[in-house]
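note to self — DONT lose this again. spent like an hour looking for the file last time. sequence + predicted structure for the chain T wanted, 302 res
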Amino acid sequence: MLVRTDSLTQLPNRVTFREQINDAIKVAKEENAQFAILYIDIDRFKVINDNFGHHIGDLLLKMVSKRILSSIRTNDIFARLSGDEFCVLLTPWLTQNNIEDVIDKIKFQLKNPILLPEEKLSIQVSISIGVALYPEHGETYDALIQHSDTAMYHVKNTGRNGYAFCSAGLIEKNRRKQEISIALQEAIKHDQLTLVFQPKANISTQEISGFESLLRWKHPQLGAIAPAEFIPVAEHSDFIQDLGAWTMQKACEQLKIWKSQADHSYTLAMNISAHQLQQESLVKSTSDIIEAAGVNPASLEF
């Protein structure tokens, strides 16, 4: 039997919500009407789960969903998609102000901390909301969910605790990120990346004392892509560790070549992502690469 309700909150689940959106699309087409999707995500929910446990996280989800449900109109539909992600179907709507009024009511309901008296806890919660409009931002369920999700993540990346309407600019920005993400995985596999080495001079001796390794990428179709663009994409993906390992391996190989060509020992500085520093495996993987390359660890700077 197909499950249609979320067991924790008793809200419609993703399966039911998809059907409800598809029904709304049919009606909107027949009546030349519009509707809106609010994609809601609880800010830093993972931190709450990590600090207080999943039991508290579940209680919080139930309380937040009740507050949001009390904020929306009787004809609106509220669903839990997964985890801490919820959606509201606003139908019909007349102006942007109508949508913002609902958002303001939701945010007002979450203004006060969530009280869990049995657990002796009081937790302040904020949410990020992305808005997509039918038919402006999509004419299918998948397009509307994707574009409202894109707008929500824009809020996440610009400070959280707010809302944003989808736009052509955000859609294009998200498309570009996805394009780079796919291309970067191939670039790591097929050695399309390169390292350039910026000299560092000793002011006292006026001699080169070492180098800093800088990562560069020239894609065969997309052209030169700046690190400021592709590094954040890698950081928010699962392959930042692969990129870091590739960079370190190539840098160590170059350091070994310099050592074989000259008596002078150079130092080589490498940049490490903040996301890499959070990985427990960083020390071991770095040690393994240095050992395999046969270079002196003292020659490396991070």
